[in-house]
Specification:
Layout lengths: L3 H4 L4 H15 L8 H9 L21 H9 L1 H4 L17 H4 L2 H10 L1 E7 L2 E7 L7 H13 L10 H10 L3
Antiparallel strand pairs: 1-2
Length: 171
């Protein structure tokens, strides 16, 4: 039987081997663990969990339907403050494109836009996807949110107006 006393009688290379072997046998080796098992262990740590929409307040209680739609379809490009991204995505704040003609704005949401657009003296050249899959209430809610947020003081839009503009199919 090998003990720490007679371990010293072995050549240095064998001592290193036995010590390494003992450390692998006695201690848990991270090398031996399956990466998937390690991932499962990490997921079960108390500080890593799936967010709870109510407890973690992912969206506040007072969020409007229009803001929810904006967060889902518009926020990635136009940002949470409506300022967009210079040269890529135009701002929604203090622009006639938002606060002006309602028909033009509904047309833009329903049909999208590709190519150059001038907003507040700056040229933007990009692509806005069409959102014709949104129903009239959803379009009215998101446009009302945009027209009354980010410092904008424009009037709201009704689902009836959106329905009328949709029928006109202005292109």
């Amino acid at each position: 039987m090998m003990t720490h006393e007679n371990l010293n009688l072995l050549p240095k290379s064998l001592r290193i081997f036995y010590i390494s072997l003992l450390s692998v046998i006695c201690c848990e080796s991270p090398i031996k663990k399956n990466p998937l098992a390690q991932m499962e262990e990490r997921k079960n740590l108390s500080h890593i969990r799936t967010p709870d929409i109510i407890k973690d307040r992912i969206e506040p209680d007072n969020i409007t339907i229009g803001q929810k739609i904006y967060n889902q379809y518009c926020l990635a490009c136009h940002q949470s403050n409506g300022m967009g991204a210079s040269g890529r995505f135009p701002p929604l704040k203090a622009t006639d494109w938002v606060t002006g003609d309602k028909k033009r704005l509904v047309h833009l949401i329903l049909n999208g836009m590709e190519g150059e657009i001038e907003v507040n003296g700056e040229i933007y050249n990009g692509l806005m996807p069409q959102h014709s899959f949104l129903n009239d209430d959803q379009v009215a809610n998101v446009l009302t949110y945009i027209r009354t947020s980010f410092g904008n003081k424009a009037s709201s839009l009704s689902a009836e107006e959106v329905k009328r503009f949709r029928k006109l199919n202005i292109k």
